[in-house]
């Protein structure tokens, strides 16, 4: 029988990425001391065991941290543009490995091959961004209130950055953090999700060669595996910044733990993203934005579209168009580019999806497009589900919470103010969007009384943000920002400097203190 792995060249992708030797569950060699218990990585595409890796023990973690701390002493002294040049080479390397790495992302995580490549493209793009940034780590200069004084601020590396990433973006989210951290002069210690450890190892292998070639200590980029490592990072005073992507529930714990020791966090937690479909919307555009937003990545993006808030006058028409589109969705092997919807990450996620549908029904939701588990040939992993649409009310408990699955809740509105209130009426605040050709509605939606989210789009869906902007959200989404714009500032410590080049020592605020 020809397996998916044979058909799509997974074996050779793994070999190219240096993953062939880890079936024994031995140490990965990717600057990762790992002697703990075995983590098995199964593909949700076909349920096949891809490889085994070992988790890091407490001692392994300690050794890794030691290397990171030593590397920081050296790396922080390398001029930022030179650090940028190293990151530029990482981008070049990622270009070379785009195909095998994109395939591995698709096979290990279950997102479509196109999206797997898209993730690697995001990594390449953030490298390019970081290279430019390495010459733009600007601070301001200020005019002092005192004569012959000069004031300015400068940014210094913050130290070690702990990156705890989620399964759904197994490589890109790490790169948004790591590439920026590196040009800032920090070192990174990465704990990938235990559901996708191979992606982490592959990335380490790719960049390891660049570090070596440039005589950069390999502790600049460390990897730790296994869930215990997450809490070691959170509690470790040597880690100045923890960038965590995951659920609000775990994020709350990370936030408290790191705050307790006065560490900094960037939290990228749950979303509950809505699209407002106005009577002035171009419905053909809504279709692409809403369907990709709701079913792309099988609804497992934190930016996935969870709610459609539709004007009552175009409600029936929009639902009709959606029903038609959903009936044409191809569900199946994510590596096969004919398919639109791949599997959920594991059977646990399938159960959560089923539970959410049951709860929605109990709360009074009306099924518009039926969900369910897909069974039969090609679906042996048990992780494939049908994207479904449920007519619901915003206040339902299930609508207020994030289910990482392709469930779309639809609801009606009559005034734009009401639509905005519904869109904001959830605990999360990541991404939001309006489809409208009305300039008034658009501006209202983007105004201070409009969307309360970190991302607000017009005539674009809620998912698929570009790396150039600061990515993150408000409220229970955690308030962090990473990736583009000036998100780099979180990876550095700011120092305000005042220099007196005169011969007197006047005090600020005109205070007299004569001796
Ligand atoms: C996430 O789901 O954790 O905007 C990140 C997007 C992607 C990133 C999502 N660029 O959909």
Q: If you had to describe this structure to a student in words, what would you say it looks like?
A:
Helix content is 37%, strand content 20%. It has 515 residues and is α/β, with parallel strands linked by helices. It folds into 2 domains: 4-269 and 480-494, Aldehyde Dehydrogenase, Chain A, domain 1 (3-Layer(aba) Sandwich); 273-466, Aldehyde Dehydrogenase, Chain A, domain 2, CATH 3.40.309. The protein starts with a helix and ends in a 15-residue tail after the last strand. Bound molecules: 2-aminohexanedioic acid (UN1). 2-aminohexanedioic acid is lined by residues 166, 168-169, 173, 245, 301-303, 463-465.
Characteristics of this structure?
single chain; 515 residues; alpha/beta; Aldehyde Dehydrogenase, Chain A, domain 1; Aldehyde Dehydrogenase, Chain A, domain 2; 2 domains; seven-stranded mixed β-sheet; five-stranded parallel β-sheet; 16 helices; binds 2-aminohexanedioic acid
């Amino acid at each position: 029988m020809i397996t998916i792995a044979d058909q799509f060249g997974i074996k050779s992708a793994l070999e190219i990425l240096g993953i062939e030797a880890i079936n024994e569950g031995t140490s990965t060699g990717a600057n990762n001391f790992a002697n703990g218990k075995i983590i098995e990585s199964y593909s949700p595409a076909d349920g096949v065991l891809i490889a085994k890796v070992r988790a890091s023990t407490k001692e392994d973690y300690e050794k890794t941290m030691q290397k990171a701390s030593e590397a920081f002493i050296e790396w922080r002294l390398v001029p930022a543009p030179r650090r940028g040049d190293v990151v530029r080479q990482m981008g070049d390397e990622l270009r070379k490995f785009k195909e095998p790495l994109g395939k591995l992302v698709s096979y290990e995580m279950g997102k479509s091959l196109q999206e797997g490549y898209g993730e690697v493209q995001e990594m390449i793009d953030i490298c390019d961004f970081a290279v430019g940034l390495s010459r733009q780590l600007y601070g301001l200069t200020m005019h002092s209130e005192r004569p012959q004084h000069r004031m300015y601020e400068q940014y210094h590396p913050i130290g070690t950055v702990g990156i705890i990433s989620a399964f759904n973006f197994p490589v890109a989210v790490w790169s948004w953090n790591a590439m920026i951290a590196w040009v800032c002069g920090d070192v990174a210690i990465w704990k990938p999700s235990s559901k996708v450890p191979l992606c982490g190892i592959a990335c380490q292998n790719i960049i390891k060669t660049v570090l070596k070639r440039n005589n950069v200590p390999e502790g600049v980029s460390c990897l730790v595996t296994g869930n215990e490592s997450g809490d070691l990072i959170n509690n470790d005073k040597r880690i100045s910044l923890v960038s965590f992507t995951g659920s609000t529930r775990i994020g709350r714990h990370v936030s408290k733990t790191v705050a307790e020791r006065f560490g900094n966090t960037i939290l990228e937690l749950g979303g509950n993203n809505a699209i407002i479909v106005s009577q002035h919307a171009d419905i053909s555009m809504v279709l692409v934005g809403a369907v990709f937003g709701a079913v792309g990545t099988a609804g497992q993006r934190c930016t996935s579209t969870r709610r459609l808030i539709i004007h009552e006058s175009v409600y029936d028409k929009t639902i009709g168009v959606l029903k038609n589109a959903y009936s044409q969705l191809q569900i199946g092997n994510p590596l096969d580019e004919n398919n639109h919807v791949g599997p959920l990450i594991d059977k646990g996620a399938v159960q959560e999806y089923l539970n959410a549908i049951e709860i929605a029904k109990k709360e009074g939701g009306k099924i518009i497009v039926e969900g369910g588990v897909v069974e039969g040939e090609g679906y042996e992993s048990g992780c494939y589900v049908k994207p479904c649409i449920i007519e619901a009310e915003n206040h339902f408990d299930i609508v207020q919470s994030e289910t990482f699955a392709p469930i779309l809740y639809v609801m009606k509105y009559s005034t734009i103010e009401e639509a905005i209130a519904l869109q904001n009426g959830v605990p999360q605040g990541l991404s939001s969007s309006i489809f409208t050709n009305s300039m008034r509605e658009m501006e209202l939606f983007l105004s201070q009384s409009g969307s309360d989210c970190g991302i607000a789009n017009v005539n674009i869906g809620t998912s698929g943000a570009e790396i150039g902007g600061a990515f993150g959200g408000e409220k229970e989404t955690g308030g962090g920002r990473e990736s583009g714009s000036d998100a780099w500032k979180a990876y550095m410590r700011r120092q305000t400097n005042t220099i007196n080049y005169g011969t007197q020592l006047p005090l600020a605020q005109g205070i007299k203190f004569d001796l």
